[in-house]
Design goal:
The chain is of the alpha/beta class. It is about 40% helix and about 20% strand.
């Protein structure tokens, strides 16, 4: 049996997890909990910006390489290391009103040109207060849904999400991403898709995984 798997390169941009952090680590937590390997496998143990995950989704094995950055410029600077991206996630803290102005159309256009990027682009507002159970103070201001949608339109992004529930919302979020790519995989390479599925069934049995 051929060990066929699908590969995805994912870039996640957002401020680090601090008082006003973007909450970008929630995206990694989901993948870490689903990976067949219990450990986060880093391309370089000294570099906490590059991670590998291996999951089985709807019986299809998917190798996911994740690149973390605080800014789009950081991704651009590391282009030679990253090479390509299939998915770009811009994450922002909904209670940090300044975070929404950090992403500009000019910066995104430069990123697209450098990476020749035509993949999925997603703007994600994260309700860090609710996810991390922080108290919501009276003076807390919040980025509105309208502002988030308008920013996505300004950047010409394909998708715009709001994450409030770390479990349900993230499951829906990744379902949409994985389904999008697996449909393309099945249509473009039906034979390889079936071979990958056979390998995925084997991995599910080997690792006692429930179908997802």
């Amino acid at each position: 049996m051929k060990k066929i798997s699908y590969s995805l390169h994912l870039g996640i941009v957002g401020s680090i997890n601090s008082e006003n952090g973007s909450g970008r680590e929630t995206f990694l937590d989901y993948l870490k909990n689903r990976t067949i390997d219990d450990k986060i496998s880093r391309t370089n143990e000294n570099d906490k910006s590059f991670f590998n995950y291996f999951i089985v989704y709807k019986q299809i094995p998917i190798k996911i390489k994740v690149f973390l950055a605080e800014t789009l410029n950081e991704l651009i600077f590391n282009h030679d290391k990253i090479k390509k991206l299939d998915i770009l996630i811009l994450a922002l803290n909904l209670y940090d009103v300044n975070s929404i102005i950090e992403f500009t159309k000019e910066n995104f256009d430069e990123f697209k040109e450098i990476f020749s990027f035509w993949g999925l682009s997603l703007l994600v507002g994260i309700d860090v207060n609710q996810i991390f159970r922080k108290p919501i103070l009276e003076y807390n201001t919040r980025i509105s849904n309208i502002d988030l949608i308008n920013k996505a339109k300004e950047l010409d992004f394909l998708f715009c999400y709001e994450i409030k529930d770390k479990d349900k919302d993230l499951i829906d979020f990744y379902d949409n991403i994985f389904n999008n790519f697996l449909v393309k995989f099945q249509i473009s390479s039906p034979e390889l898709f079936e071979q990958a599925k056979s390998h995925g069934v084997y991995l599910e049995k080997k690792n006692n995984l429930s179908q997802s």
